[in-house]
Write a structure and sequence with these properties.
By secondary structure, the protein is mainly α. 70% of the residues lie in helices and 0% in strands. The chain is globular. It folds into 2 domains: 319 residues, no CATH class; 88 residues, no CATH class.
Length: 441
Amino acid sequence: MKVSDLKKNITCFLIRFIKSEEYKHLRIVYMIALISSITVILLGPSYVIGDTESYYSAKEKILTGSFDHLRTPLYPVFLLITYNWRITTFFQYLIFFVSIFYLYRTFKIIKTSPRLIFIAMVIYVCHPAFMYYQNLGGTEALCISLSSIFIYHLVTYIRNEKILNCWIFHIIILFLILLKPGCVFLLSIPVILLIYLFFTKRKLIVSYTLPFLLVLLFIGGYGLCIKKTYDIYSISSVSDINLYWMLRERNKINVDSIKNNDVKNFVSDKVDVKYENYAEYYAEADSIINQYGWKELHSIVQSSLKNNHIPVLFDNSNIRKMQKNMYDPLGKSVFFCDSQSIFSKFDNYFFFLTFYQLILVLFFYFFLIIKHIYIVRKIPIISVLFFSCVSVHLFSLILTAPNDYGRLIIPSLLVILIICMQCLEWFVLFIQKKEKNFILL
């Protein structure tokens, strides 16, 4: 496409967007988003939070030609390109405003009612779970925005089977994983879709598999780069740090299995110490990496988990901790509480789902999927992917995350919003005695 043609298409779209009745509600949403953004900028949290410094540290390492063991490279590169925090937040907001259009189009494609689309969009542009992070130096803002674009291209590919959409949603999966290692759960989506296509549309298998293999190749290649530097085949040390933290809290560190005497002495001196502040466990794991290397921390974690993973997982103290974490509000980070801004007081006026409530929603959504399959005799693959995405992510959090579930669930937050809107639509139609009109795709 020529540059002149592209300019013409953009101009035509903008004219249609401004004048067309089709985008009337979306124009209102953008106005609300603008007001909401200004409110967050004026009253919201400061740019620097607990994780911010580590991303700038990773940026400096990239400038020296090496990768950081903790932070995957996409956000440090983003910081490198945007140069200073004002430009960084400007682009975070800009990408967020682009994502609004993609989420709106996604709701249209899955045939959500116009009123519920408007409600969902207002939630997206006003709720602290989405807006709070746009003003912060961390990966969450880009995670939210890229998730919107990813969902749109995934749904569009399933509906239209266009290879371009297939490539785009796979590339965004790669971006999200290189942005936040916890997004690796997203690989479950192309795997499940591949199985579905194998049984229903085998002609698409070859064209579908190529971008998927490319994603795996890039992730594997990055893992090899990390192995060259740190002698560990992984994309981030964050999982080892979190597992060490969990093992320390539960007195499950196997000191006798540590072969390096210096490391053994270091851990022995610390192992009986109980910290009130959870960040101290994180700092202890980080100290082991900085003093003795990531490989030593990895060895401690693996030897402590060896033949002991199930007892660690189902230990009474671990179960109590998981139960406590399940009361966390979705999207609400510990940084909400730490912030001294006026905006931090506003979140009390918003409703946050807890993880227990999310599980109830997922059970009901699963019931709707099974009911649809029974009545229509067809698998609603988009809904199955949504359900699988959130379920796999939730399961991975329970297994590997010590705390702060609310922030860590953010990559799935938009999918959860869509699921909630679909469940709400069923209830509205049920009350109107029109539940037969309910559609799952």
